[in-house]
UniProtKB/TrEMBL annotation:
Lineage top rank: taxon: Bacteria
Single GO MF descriptor: iron ion binding
Source organism per UniProt: Comamonas denitrificans
Protein name: SUF system NifU family Fe-S cluster assembly protein
InterPro entries reported in the protein's UniProt record: NIF_FeS_clus_asmbl_NifU_N
Amino acid sequence: MSSVENDLYQEVVMEHKRAPRNFGHLDSPSHQAQGTNPSCGDRVAVELLLDGNTVQDIRFSGQGCAICMASTSMMTEAVKGQDVALAQELQQHFRAVLTGEEDPEEAPLGKLVSLAGVRQYPSRIKCALLGWHALMHAIAGNQEAANTEDGIPATEGGVA
């Protein structure tokens, strides 16, 4: 990673940690799920208001490291107002970039590509994926807490 990419990565992470987007609770969520990362203690809850197949609104709450909070904040911006299928596709690309299965330059991630630097820190990949785990569980209507140790079953739009 070049120093310019590293600077952008650090700037984006710190900005979203300081001022997370869509943080808080929805009055009447239609779907919700929680996620935990037992290896570091990160915890997030994702609440959705789905209108048909559209993520009409999304909020998250919880606490975690800067990477976890920034990734979840950026995730909410990326999926709000979008089709559920697009959210699932974004999750697959994001995970593939972080695990080295897809080149960041070729992945259709938009602003999320700025988090591609996490792939340089393998122990932090689970932190960056936690909010996405919870989102996929919420979309699937799975009330069981998402756990980064379990992976995301392919039936939920993820890559196991």
